[in-house]
C-alpha cells in the first residue's frame, strides 16, 4: 500500500525496515502522521535523506477544506473536504455535553438508495481509504483547535459497504500512539447490511452499533430503503438479536419519522414486538427536508414516541444541531455539486 497513513504500526515499521531503516523509525513516522503533519519536512527527528526518500515514494495527501460553515445557532462546524483526486466529502463537528464529536463520511456518495437521503442521489463514486477517514477527524481537530473525543460514522456512505477500510480506520484512530480514541467513544451507523453486522458481532468491538431502521414492516421499509429487498427487516432483527447476544451491547435504532409513512401506532407496536428480549434504544429523528424528495417530517412524532414508551422502550428525539448550515448528510456536497454543474452549464 503506497498510502503510508493507511498502514498500521507493524506495517509501517516493516515498510521502513524494508528501506533499510531501524525499527524505531516506524513509530516515529506513525506518530507524526497521526499528528496531522502536512509534509515530511515537519518530521524533524528524521534524517533529511529519509524524508526525501519518503517524499518521492509515498506522496502525502492532505485534504483541503474547500468550504466551512459555522452554525450561528450552536457552533456546529461543517466541512466540505476536497480529496487528492478532486472528489469531495463532508464532516461535521458538534459540541455535546459528553464531548466534542466528529461525524465522518465513509464513502464518496452512497449506493444504498434510501428515498429520504441526500447522500445517495448521485450514487456511489468510490470507497474512502482508511487514511481519508482518519484525516477527517485529524484535520477537523486541528482546524477547530479543540480535542475530539467521539466519532460517529454517520456521514456520507454506508460503512458496512466499505468494512475492511473502516476496520483498519478504527484500528488506526484507536491506537495509543495515534489519536487514541477509545472504541466506546465511536458509533457506527448502518442501513442494515446483515453480513457486516454479523462480522462485527464476531469481532466483539466495544463500539456502539446504530441501525437505521426507519420502518419495522417489510412493505414500508422496502419502499423507502431498497436495501430491505436484499436483507429483509426480519433478517435484520435476527442479526441484531444475535449481535446483542454475542456482544452484550445495546443497539441504537435510528428512526427518521416520516409523515404518513412510518409514524403509525401499529408500527410502534410492531417495533416493540420485534425488539422483545433486547434492550433497544430508539432514536427518533425529525426528518430533514431534502428538496429532491416528496417525503415530509411527521406531524405525530410526539404521539409515536409516547406509543413506543408505553411499551417500555427508550425513545428519544434527536436534538438537531446546525439547522442553519445544511448540516445533515450529503446536503453540502450536493449543493456544491449543483453549483459546479451550473457553472459548467453557463460556460
Ligand atoms: N449509511 C449509514 C450511515 C449514514 S446516514 C446508515 O444508513 O445508517 C446517517 C443517518 O441519517 C441514517 O440513520 C440515515 O437514515 C439518516 N438520514 C439520512 N437522510 C435523512 C433525512 N433526510 N432526515 C433524517 N435522517 C436522515
Structure in words:
By secondary structure, the chain is an alpha/beta fold. Helix 1 crosses helix 2 (24-33) and helix 6 (194-203) packs parallel to helix 9 (233-247). It has twelve helices and twelve strands. The protein has helices at residues 9-18, 24-33, 48-57, 130-144, 163-174, 194-203, 218-224, 227-230, 233-247, 265-275, 301-310, 331-345; strands at 64-70, 77-82, 88-96, 99-103, 107-109, 124-127, 150-153, 186-190, 208-212, 252-257, 281-286, 314-317. Among the domains are: 4-57, DNA polymerase, domain 1, CATH 1.10.150; 191-320, Aldolase class I (TIM Barrel, Alpha-Beta Barrel). The model has no long low-confidence stretch (mean pLDDT 94). Strand 10 (252-257), helix 10 (265-275) and strand 11 form a beta-alpha-beta unit. 37% of the residues lie in helices and 18% in strands. The strands form two sheets. Strands 1-2-3-4-7-8-9-10-11-12 form a ten-stranded mixed beta sheet, with helices on one face. The structure holds S-adenosyl-L-homocysteine (SAH). Residues 114, 116-117, 154, 158, 189-191, 212, 254, 256, 285, 287-288, 290, 328-329 line the site of S-adenosyl-L-homocysteine (SAH).
The biggest beta sheet reads:
10 strands, mixed
Total count of strands: 12
The helix content, as a percent range, equals 25-40%
Q: Can you write the helix and strand succession as a string?
A: HHHEEEEEEHEHEHEHHHEHEHEH
At CATH level 3, the topology of the domain at 191-320 is: TIM Barrel
Terminal Cα span: 40 Å
Oligomeric state as shown: single chain
Query: Which percent range describes the beta-strand content?
Result: 15-25%
Q: What small molecules does this complex bind?
A: S-adenosyl-L-homocysteine
Number of helices: 12
Please give the CATH architecture of the domain at 191-320: Alpha-Beta Barrel
Strand order of the main beta sheet, please?
1-2-3-4-7-8-9-10-11-12
Query: What is the C-alpha radius of gyration, as a whole number of Å?
Result: 21 Å
Average pLDDT works out at: 94
Amino acid at each position: 500500500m503506497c498510502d503510508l497513513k493507511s498502514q498500521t504500526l507493524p506495517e509501517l515499521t516493516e515498510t521502513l525496515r524494508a528501506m533499510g531503516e531501524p525499527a524505531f523509525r516506524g513509530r516515529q513516522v506513525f506518530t507524526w502522521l497521526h499528528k496531522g503533519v502536512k509534509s515530511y519536512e515537519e518530521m524533524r527527528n528524521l534524517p533529511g535523506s529519509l524524508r526525501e526518500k519518503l517524499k518521492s515514494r509515498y506522496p502525502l495527501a492532505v485534504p483541503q477544506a474547500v468550504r466551512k460553515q459555522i452554525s450561528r445557532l450552536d457552533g456546529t462546524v461543517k466541512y466540505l473536504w476536497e480529496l487528492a483526486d478532486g472528489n469531495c466529502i463532508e464532516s461535521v463537528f458538534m459540541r455535546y455535553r459528553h464531548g466534542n464529536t466528529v461525524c465522518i463520511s465513509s464513502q464518496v456518495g452512497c449506493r444504498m438508495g434510501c428515498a429520504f437521503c441526500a447522500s445517495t442521489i448521485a450514487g456511489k463514486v468510490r470507497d474512502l481509504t482508511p487514511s481519508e477517514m482518519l484525516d477527517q477527524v485529524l484535520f477537523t481537530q486541528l482546524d477547530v483547535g479543540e480535542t475530539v473525543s467521539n466519532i460517529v460514522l454517520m456521514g456520507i456512505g454506508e460503512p458496512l459497504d466499505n468494512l475492511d477500510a473502516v476496520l483498519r480506520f478504527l484500528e488506526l484512530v484507536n491506537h495509543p500512539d495515534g489519536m487514541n480514541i477509545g472504541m466506546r467513544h465511536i458509533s457506527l451507523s448502518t442501513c442494515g447490511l446483515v453480513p457486516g453486522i454479523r462480522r462485527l458481532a464476531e469481532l466483539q468491538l466495544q463500539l456502539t452499533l446504530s441501525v437505521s431502521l426507519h420502518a419495522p414492516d417489510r412493505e414500508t421499509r422496502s419502499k423507502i430503503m431498497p436495501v430491505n429487498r436484499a436483507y429483509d427487516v426480519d433478517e435484520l432483527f435476527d442479526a441484531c438479536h444475535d449481535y446483542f447476544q454475542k456482544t452484550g451491547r445495546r443497539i441504537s435504532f435510528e428512526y427518521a419519522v416520516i409523515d404518513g409513512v412510518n409514524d403509525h401506532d401499529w408500527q410502534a407496536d410492531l417495533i416493540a414486538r420485534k425488539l422483545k428480549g433486547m434492550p433497544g434504544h430508539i432514536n427518533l429523528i425529525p426528518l430533514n427536508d431534502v428538496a429532491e424528495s416528496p417525503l415530509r417530517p411527521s406531524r405525530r412524532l410526539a404521539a409515536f414516541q409516547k406509543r413506543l414508551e408505553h411499551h417500555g422502550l427508550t425513545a428519544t428525539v434527536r436534538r438537531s444541531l446546525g439547522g442553519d448550515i445544511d448540516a445533515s448528510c450529503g446536503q453540502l456536497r450536493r449543493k456544491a455539486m449543483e453549483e459546479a454543474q451550473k457553472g459548467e452549464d453557463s460556460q
